From TrEMBL:
Family annotation (PANTHER family): ADENINE PHOSPHORIBOSYLTRANSFERASE, URACIL PHOSPHORIBOSYLTRANSFERASE, CHLOROPLASTIC
Domain Phosphoribosyltransferase residues, every copy: 5-210
Record-listed 5-phospho-alpha-D-ribose 1-diphosphate binding positions: R78, R103, D130, P131, M132, L133, A134, T135, G136, G137, S138, D203
MF (Gene Ontology): GTP binding; magnesium ion binding; uracil phosphoribosyltransferase activity
Gene3D superfamilies in the cross-refs: 3.40.50.2020
GO biological process, one term: UMP salvage
Protein name: Uracil phosphoribosyltransferase
Source organism phylogeny: Bacteria, Bacillati, Actinomycetota, Actinomycetes, Propionibacteriales
First-level EC class: transferase
Keyword Methyltransferase set for record: no
SUPFAM superfamilies: PRTase-like (SSF53271)
Catalytic reactions on record: UMP + diphosphate = 5-phospho-alpha-D-ribose 1-diphosphate + uracil
Family: Belongs to the UPRTase family.
Length: 212
């Protein structure tokens, strides 16, 4: 897996405020949205474009526009929803598919409770959004869904990732033979005994939406 850590002072600044336990939900939502826009810039570096001609007020010029087939953005509910607008802002032609997953906090395995994806994803560039890559169970399950539908170009956009989660995605994706790119704002040290990222930012869904 290719891991790209967005190394930029604005990313580090926003991430630091997100981590702060005293940051309230409205501020957390705004910063998550801003961070995703910065990550989206990196994540879409290889998005497909086609050449077009454009008439400026002065002369004809050659440019590009986002090409078909349209990219697919897949937020993993619930916390991934907090990243959707920031991604759509930079990728306005994208379609959106949804996956609802919740981690069983006893087993740390992901349960899927909702799925709304196009049937055929062959040839589509897919961008999966989930703020936290902890054990990797949720992201791995999401990527397996996409691969079963024919996806072979997958980029995951996360705010924080733990080494354990990265290793799991690497292992499982090598087994299925699909390369995955991860774009992340920060790489953290480890997981604690409850599967939380350390130092992390706590429960991303609760901090975004305030309901446990
Ligand atoms: C959180 C987070 C990820 C998952 C990461 O979701 O948003 O989806 O945990 O953990 P993992 O890498 O160990 O699978 P959660 O299950 O809390 O659901 P939520 O988004 O509804 O809060
Ligand atoms: N899910 C979260 O929201 N935070 C963690 O640290 C781990 C899983």
């Amino acid at each position: 897996m290719h891991v790209h850590v967005a190394d930029h002072p604005l990313v580090s600044h926003k991430l630091t405020v997100l981590r702060d336990a005293s940051t309230d939900s409205p501020t957390f939502r705004r910063l998550a949205d801003e961070l995703v826009t910065l990550l989206a810039y990196e994540a879409t570096r290889d998005v497909r474009v086609e050449t077009v001609q454009v008439m400026t007020p002065v002369a004809q010029a050659q440019g590009v526009r986002l090409a078909d087939p349209r990219p697919l953005v897949v937020p993993i509910l619930r916390a991934g929803l907090g990243m959707l607008e920031g991604m759509q802002r930079l990728l306005p032609t994208a379609e959106v598919g949804f996956l609802g997953m919740v981690r069983n906090e006893a087993t740390l395995e992901a349960d899927t409770y909702a799925e709304r994806l196009p049937d055929d994803l062959s040839g589509r560039q897919c961008y999966v959004l989930d703020p936290m890559l902890a054990t990797g169970g949720s992201l791995a399950a999401a990527i397996h869904f996409l691969v079963k539908r024919g996806a072979d170009h997958i980029t995951a956009v996360c705010l924080l990732a733990a080494p354990e989660g990265i290793e799991r995605i690497e292992r499982e994706m090598t087994e299925v033979g699909v390369p995955v790119t991860l774009v992340v704002a920060g790489l953290d040290e480890r997981l604690d005994e409850n599967g939380y990222i350390v130092p992390g930012l706590g429960d991303a869904g609760d901090r975004l939406y305030g309901v446990a």
